[in-house]
Amino acid sequence: MALTPTGASPNLTLNATSAQALKLAIGSTYTVNITKVDGNQVNFTLAGKPLTATTQQPLTEGKPLTVKVTQTQPNLVLQIQPKSLPVDTAAKNQALMQSAFRQLLPNQIPIAQGVQQLTSLTNTGLLPSAIQSQLSSLLEQLFKPSAQTSAKELKRQLLSSGLFLESSLSKSGKPHPGDFKAKLLQLLQMVNQTPSNKQPELSRLSTLLNQTLNRLTLQQLQTIESAHLTNIQLPLAPNDHLQEISIDIRKQKKATPPLWEVIMNLQLPAGELSSKLVIQEDVVSIMLWADNTTLENTVSDKLPKLKEQFHEALIPLKHIMMSKEKPTNTTQAEKVALIDIHI
């Protein structure tokens, strides 16, 4: 048996008896393990059997090779396959992301705008009854006042915002209860399966659903691309006004015990309101800042009520005060993602 290069492709050549004993088929690929190299003599294992060959090809002990059966008669010939180039996963994923952005950006609308237009379309009463009922149910779910204002309720709304649909399906095979994206997809499927889907109202509904779904998908992609910047639009009111909230979470690891900082900026009709929470061993300190005197006075009047709410929630409060300067992050604090999301 000899290992000889044929043209540009190095081969392992065995005799016919070996081919019959190993029962190898032409075109099949196998992995052989080089156990010893002594000059041009090579010992290796194939299908659990130790074999010996000679070769002009330099090989390294302990390195596996992928071989392909190219001939079985009169001799068995195994062609050594070239190593595949490493795949640049990061570059490939980035290219896929950019392609998705190019497709989605021209055909999307803000969540609040999409919901407002869906509400207007429902009010026309021109949609088929089954679709009308499904859409009305979705809007009622979105705008039904919640008796809870707890962190648990906020978590529920985040989980059902549509950002986690694919993640939930991959883990449990079903969406979170009331998942917004899942509901929109169900509606779109109903529209596409309706025989009279060429009527103007259904055509308009299909466009709105696709544009709103595209916006949700963009939010998911943006979260994957930058975990420290989570873009979430929760449709909590049937209007075209969307208030954006900026939340920055950081951790001071060098502090003993570790200290967390949370800065939240709100753009309110009355002006900008910024708050900084410092949390250490479950004790909270709060600093508030307003960009105008009227808003500052309004917030100051509400501080006693806010202190009372912290007390009722059994959250230890060290202090809460108004600041003359807008809160900033501590230099040593490291930024932390708002949500650990995997899509």
**Beta-strand segment tally:** 13
Structural class computed from helices and strand pairing: alpha+beta
Q: Treating each run of at least 4 consecutive H or I residues as one helix, how many helices?
A: 9
The overall pLDDT, averaged over residues, is 79
Query: How many independent structural domains?
Result: 3
Give the overall form. Answer: flat
Distance between the termini: 52 Å
Low-confidence stretches: 1-9, 338-343
Task: Give the ordered list of helices and strands.
Answer: EEHEEEEEHHHHHHHEEEEHEE
Walk across the major sheet and give the strand order.
1-2-7-6-3-4-5
Strand content: 25-35%
Name some characteristics of this structure.
single chain; six-stranded mixed β-sheet; Transcription Regulator spoIIAA; 37% helix; alpha+beta
Task: Write up this protein.
This is Flagellar hook-length control protein FliK. The protein has 343 residues and is of the alpha+beta class. 37% of the residues lie in helices and 27% in strands. The chain folds into 3 domains: 2-80, Beta Barrel (OB fold (Dihydrolipoamide Acetyltransferase, E2P)); 90-225, no CATH class; 245-336, Transcription Regulator spoIIAA (2-Layer Sandwich), CATH 3.30.750. Strands 1-2-7-6-3-4-5 form a 7-stranded antiparallel β-sheet. A 6-stranded mixed β-sheet has the order 12-11-10-9-8-13, covered by helices on one side. Helix 3 (111-123) packs across helix 4, helix 3 runs antiparallel to helix 8 (200-225) and helix 4 (129-143) packs antiparallel against helix 7. The longest helix is centred in the middle third of the chain and has 26 residues, at 200-225.
